[in-house]
Design a protein that fits this description.
The strands form 4 sheets. The chain has a 7-stranded mixed beta sheet with strand order 8-7-6-9-10-12-11. It is α/β, with parallel strands linked by helices and 583 residues long. The longest helix is centred in the last third of the chain and has 22 residues. The protein folds into 2 domains: 227 residues, Rossmann fold; 193 residues, Rossmann fold. Helix content is 25%, strand content 18%. Keywords: Glycoprotein, Membrane, Methyltransferase, Signal-anchor, Transferase, Transmembrane, Transmembrane helix.
């Protein structure tokens, strides 16, 4: 029992570090030594027999983190129904993020499902993925007749349909293009609410439009996981009691296809939130309820009244699809509107959106006309030009240019000298954990990848500049788990990883490096790559953690021309499997 219990998952609060600490004196006898050698031999034997890997290199056993139980294959620490089922259902509060307290989260390695294999590469993955990587057939059973997905042999196939576009996303997009300039370069960033398996966003990619699709953890099982397995930008999220974790005036259009969001409920809080996120001159597209929907005439009338109060232009109502255009100038509020809407006070920061409660007032925003659709540069020119928002920062334009040049050199070094497989079929889904202005994403814009740019919530709120460039991202605090399924990213990059866990005011650690790297392991695909940059002492600690979580790691010097003492850890997550006896 002693050996078996030592291999069980721990709670993080029970771990005192990566290695094993000792205290007190111990007198070893000859029999003690023999017994210790015997136990070590048994551990090595079990590791070799029951933990096969595709690579030849085995991680060190000392301080190794055990695997989670096979039942935790889709572990979502902050969207766990075992916790959320006890919470209030008012405004879907129970379906929002609710993370375990520090010390309660499991400190174990999330296993892949049985039969898991390296995902189908992009762009083939848009149309099919391995069934065994996500062996969940509920959507295929319930939505197959609408063209969502179906099973064929060892694959799930995605015809491209949806509830409101059973004939396929491509035909639906063609229809929308009659009223929305989806093929002109004017529109680049979109938000798809309640996205299903994200076929709408997937088929917009060929138009050089990047759509961030979101849905909550759901009864259909893993909509967002399917989207990410396909290589489509997606995120676990619920429209509930809080602002969505994006800056104001971010998206060139917002789309809802039967998303079932009650836009005018709670004094219009949800439509007000959409207005906060929508760029001036942007488009709101709603297909399905309540647009001309039987028995929802009241809700449809309220939606029309509220959009009129916001001075949105109703472009078309075609069957159950309605399209509005947001004014490209400052809000027409305050006015004598029929919905009772008013502006927020000057104390409201519309860009603040990390655990920030929804408001029933419309945020005042600056630089409306300068960053409106039609004023901001078209794609791809907007990628390389500092927007008006960047210029609001001290020396912002120069910082923007310097950051762009720095990351161009760094990415070239990664590819040419460090063997990072950017630009190949091995890497599709990329995460930048500390994105600043999105320089890394800009440097790989011509590669067949998309990048989730994460701006830490405790750092300057630069995410608006990233959206102005035509890129996407979210706010997040890395002392908490990220809202995504396990095994969803091919490459995770952490520049200055220690700054992600350090309080910027006190300089003290808010959480442990171990916690952050364990979370990176959860969301990284087997055989995926991590790149971590920091000072030599931080990288030394990261190497120890990497060994404990079975990564194969190498440490490199930074770019020769940089003159920096910074070190770079490049690591590969090994492809290990759960022992057949695991339960």
């Amino acid at each position: 029992m002693g050996l078996l219990s030592s291999l069980r998952p721990h709670r993080r609060g029970a771990l005192s570090g990566v290695g094993v600490g000792g205290g007190g004196q111990w007198q070893w006898s000859f029999l003690d030594a023999v017994w210790a050698v015997f136990l070590l031999a048994v551990v090595v034997f079990l590791a070799l027999v029951f933990t096969p890997r595709r690579g030849d290199t085995l991680p060190a056993l000392a301080g190794a983190v055990p695997p989670c139980a096979a039942s935790e294959v889709d572990l979502l620490p902050c969207e766990d129904p075992r916790r959320s089922s006890r919470l209030s259902r008012e405004m879907n509060y129970y379906r929002e993020r609710h993370c375990p307290a520090r010390g309660e989260a499991l400190a174990c390695l999330v296993p892949p499902p049985r039969g898991y294999r390296v995902p189908v590469s992009w762009p083939e993955s848009l149309h099919k993925i391995w069934h065994d990587n996500m062996p969940y057939g509920k959507i295929a059973e319930r939505k197959g007749h609408q063209g969502w997905m179906k099973q064929e042999g060892s694959y799930f196939i995605f015809p491209g349909g949806g509830t409101m576009f059973p004939d396929g996303a491509e035909r639906y997009i063609e229809k929308l293009t009659q009223y929305v300039p989806l093929k002109s370069g004017l529109l680049r960033t979109g938000l798809d609410m309640g996205c299903g398996v994200a076929s709408f966003g997937g088929f917009l990619l060929k138009e050089n439009i990047i759509t961030l699709s979101f849905a909550p953890r759901d009864s259909h099982k893993s909509q967002i996981q399917f989207a990410l397995e396909r290589g489509i930008p997606a995120f676990l999220l619920m429209m509930g009691t809080r602002r969505l974790p994006f800056p104001a005036q971010s998206f060139d259009f917002v789309h809802c296809s039967r998303c079932l969001i009650p836009f005018t409920a709670y004094n219009g809080s949800y439509l007000i939130e959409v207005d906060r996120l929508l760029r001036p001159g942007g488009y709101l597209i709603i297909s399905g309820p309540p647009v001309q929907w039987k028995e929802q005439e009241k809700e449809w009338g309220e939606l029309q009244a509220m959009t009129r109060s916001l001075c949105y232009e109703l472009i078309i109502v075609d069957g159950n699809t309605a399209i509005w255009k947001k004014p490209a100038k400052a809000s027409c509020l305050p006015n004598q509107n029929e919905s009772g809407l008013d502006l927020c006070s000057t104390n409201d920061d519309p860009d603040e959106a990390w655990y920030f409660k929804l408001k029933e007032c419309v945020s005042k925003v600056s630089l409306v006309e300068e960053i409106a659709v039609g004023s901001i540069d078209k794609w791809p020119d907007r990628l390389s030009k500092p927007s008006a928002r960047a210029s609001l920062m001290d020396d912002g334009a120069n910082l923007f240019e310097a950051d762009t040049q720095k990351w161009s050199k760094r990415v070239s070094y990664y590819k040419m000298s460090l063997g990072v497989k950017l630009g190949t079929a091995h890497i599709r889904n990329v995460m930048d954990m500390n994105a600043f202005f999105g320089g890394l994403a800009t440097a790989v814009a011509s590669d067949p990848v998309w990048v989730m740019n994460v701006v830490p919530a405790q750092k300057p709120l630069t995410l608006g500049v990233i959206y102005d460039r035509g890129l996407i991202g979210v706010y997040h605090d890395w002392c908490e788990p990220f809202s995504t399924y396990p095994r969803t990213y091919d490459l995770i990059h952490a520049d200055g990883i220690n700054s992600l866990i350090t309080d910027p005011k006190s300089g003290k650690s808010r959480c442990d490096l171990f916690d952050v790297m364990l979370e990176m392991d959860r969301i990284l695909r087997p055989e995926g790559t991590t790149v971590i940059r920091d000072s030599p002492d931080v990288i030394e600690k990261a190497v120890h953690v990497a060994q404990s979580i079975r990564w194969i790691a190498q440490v490199h010097d930074s770019e020769p021309e940089s003159g920096s003492t910074e070190k770079i850890l490049v690591a590969t997550k090994t492809f290990w499997k759960v022992p057949l006896t695991s339960k």
